Amino acid sequence: MFNNRESAKERLLRTVDAYAFMAYETLLYLDAYPDSKEALECYNKYKRLENRARKEYESRYGWLTAPEEAASWEWTNGPWPWQIDKEGK
């Protein structure tokens, strides 16, 4: 699934995206079948996995989305994604 040339950062971001996709797709299914206990369990599982992967990513590399509350807006001080080369420098 993952390219061997991807950095650890890129792999982790793909993992966050994959779990978010699965959670969202299951959420859409639940819109049509709200009584499906199996789908609800699946949604909760992928949402937990997404949150865990997102927390790991953000602890290593910074925010993926703006937090609900912030003490400062320091994330703008670092390099923008297009300013970072493939090695993460």
Explain what the structure shows.
This protein has about 90 residues and is mainly alpha-helical. It has a domain of about 60 residues. It is about 55% helix and about 0% strand. The protein is built from 2 helices and no strands. Helix 1 packs antiparallel against helix 2. The longest helix is centred in the first third of the chain and has 25 residues. It is elongated and about 45 Å long. The two termini are about 25 Å apart.
Given the helix and strand composition, which structural class is it?
mainly alpha
- The residue ranges in which pLDDT falls below 50 over 5 or more consecutive positions are none
What's the overall average pLDDT, rounded? 84
What gap, in angstroms, lies between the N and C termini?
25 Å
Query: If helices are DSSP runs of H or I spanning 4 or more residues, what is the number of helices?
Result: 2
- The total of beta strands comes to 0
Question: How much helix, percentage-wise, in residues?
Answer: 55-70%
Largest β-sheet summary: none
Task: Provide a brief overview of the structure.
The chain is mostly helical and 89 residues long. It has helices at 8-32, 37-61. The protein has a domain at 1-62.
List keywords for this structure.
89 residues, mainly alpha
List the helices and strands and how they pair.
Blueprint: H1 8-32, H2 37-61
